[in-house]
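Reading a protein record of the kind used here takes only a little practice. The integers have meaning only within a learned vocabulary of local backbone shapes. With that in mind, consider the following protein and its fold in token form:
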Amino acid sequence: MSNPFSTPNSLDPEAGFTQTPSIGQAANDLRVAAGEKAREFVQTAESKAAVLKERAVESAQHFRESATEKANHLKESATEQWQDTRVKARELQVTAEDYIRQNPTKCVVSALGLGFLIGLIVRR
């Protein structure tokens, strides 16, 4: 009887396995397919990045326009309020001058009394 393990071919690790061109071709096909998928992935990522960049630019422009519009509105409002305050201060000054002209004695006595009170407060 012959022992199948004793033959020199049986000790060869590749004995009994023949490489067929189909395995090499399959590996090559897998490499090509993986490369194509990687390129598709890169193209998809680039296109999505471009879309996101476009949206970010649009959002930034919208935000800038909105902020500019609100700043202009606040500036106009502040200008109007400043003008109103100036008018009211001028009216108050005119009213105070008229009152002092009509009641000079009362105003002088009031000023003296107020000065006396302030002097007492400051001394303490």
